Structure formats: structure tokens, C-alpha cells
Amino acid sequence: MNILKVGILASGNGTNLQTIIDKSEKKELPVRVVVVISDKPDAYALQRASKHSIPTFVVKPRDFADKVSYEQKMIDILKSHDVELVVLAGFMKILSPHFIGAFRNRIINIHPSLIPAFCGKDFYGMKVHQAVIDSGVKITGATVHFVDENVDAGPIIIQKAIEVKDNDTAETVALKVHQIEHQILPEAIRLFAEGKLKIVGRKVFIEE
Ligand code: GAR
């Protein structure tokens, strides 16, 4: 089977990255993580990648004159590693049309809520889970979607819900959401790698 070359952008701990690496090494996913890029030099995701001999790069926006040149650096790294799919796995920067156009329909993102709830430029990481707790909703979850020019609004590939219980906190919700992220992100990557995702307008059809 053809092995898809995946490049991952991550800003933090990298548990989603770890799941993808582990499943690809166990041959449960027909992909190979060929490069990991972070905007944060101390992101633990970089260490996780290094432990598996995956090349890593730190690309910091403030080292560049503008957003286009910052993103062009990442595009150059990804293209030089022949990346076929870009996965945003806990990447906290918003990408501009310049980057998105370079990998049209080849970028997917994991977001820690049920889009279109608790998403957009002010909702990321723990902020999402705190907002979930503060709002009193009874369910939340995670979403994997294609990335387009609208923040957290590209065509949805997979969503999965969890219940929010009375005694939940932002931390316990984050733990539960991470568990389902570790299921749906690899599943979405598998579907992409096997050519089973078809984007039609706002919708993604899954051909099993
Ligand atoms: C994940 O929950 C992911 O959904 C979220 O950051 C976390 C990263 O966890 N992403 C966003 O909030 C993007 N808007 P990880 O570093 O352990 O994979």
C-alpha cells in the first residue's frame, strides 16, 4: 500500500502527534510522519518527534518580517520533505490564505469542541474547555476538519461527542476530549490516506 507522507504542525504537548507516530509505526495507519514543525522551541511535541528520529524544525513568527515570509518558510520545509498531508495537531497559530493555498484540501485540523460551538480565533486549548464548563452545556467533543480560509470553519470530516457531567472541570473535560481526539484524528488521517474523503461544497462524504 502507498504510504502517505505527513507533516505535522504542533505548538504544545503533542499527545495527538504521539498517537499518529505510534499508530504509523505499528502499521495501523498507512502514513509516515516525515517532519514536525513548531512555533514554540520548548514544545514537548518536538522531543516526542526526535525520540522517533523524525526531523524537527522551530519556525517562529517573530523571526520573520511578515506572515507571508513566516509561512513560506514552513511551506518550503514541508515541500522539501515531499509532504502530502499537513496535520495541525495542537497548532495554535492561524494560517493565512498564503499557506492554505499552498496545500489546498491537504490540511486537516483537530479542534477540541463540536464545531460550530466554541471555535474561532479566541477559542483554543484549555480556553475551549473552560468556556464549555462556564456555559453549562451538557455535551462537547472534538472535530476533525479540512482547513480553509475561515478559522475553524472548513468542511467537517469527523466529530465525536462526550457528556459534560455536573462534577466536570475544564481539566477533566480536556482529558476526556483528548481521549476521543486520539481516536478521530488517526481515523480521519486513515480515510484521507486511503482516498476515501470527497469534499463537495461544505460537506465531506466518506466513501467506505
Ligand atoms: C488538542 O486538544 C487540540 O484539539 C487543541 O490543542 C490540544 C493539543 O493537544 N487544538 C486547538 O485548540 C487548536 N485550535 P496535544 O498537544 O496533546 O496534541
Element layout with pairings:
Blueprint lengths: L3 E6 L5 H11 L5 E8 L5 H8 L4 E3 L8 H14 L4 E4 L8 H6 L4 E5 L14 H10 L3 E8 L9 E8 L6 H24 L3 E4 L2 E4 L2
Parallel strand pairs: 1-2, 1-4, 2-3, 4-5
Antiparallel strand pairs: 5-6, 6-7, 8-9
The protein binds glycinamide ribonucleotide.
The counted number of beta strands is 9
Number of domains: 2
Largest sheet: 7 strands, mixed
Q: First CA to last CA: what distance? A: 17 Å
Q: Judging by the overall fold, what is the CATH architecture of the largest domain?
A: 3-Layer(aba) Sandwich
**Residue share in helices?**
25-40%
Shape: globular
The portion of residues forming beta strands comes to 15-25%
Order of helices and strands: EHEHEHEHEHEEHEE
Structural class: alpha/beta
Gyration radius, in Å: 16 Å
Which superfamily, in CATH terms, is the homologous superfamily of the largest domain? Formyl transferase, N-terminal domain
CATH class of the largest domain: Alpha Beta
Ligands in the model, by name, code or SMILES, are: glycinamide ribonucleotide
Give the helix tally: 6
What strand order characterises the main sheet? Answer: 3-2-1-4-5-6-7
State mean pLDDT (0 to 100 scale): 97
Would you give the CATH topology of the largest domain?
Rossmann fold
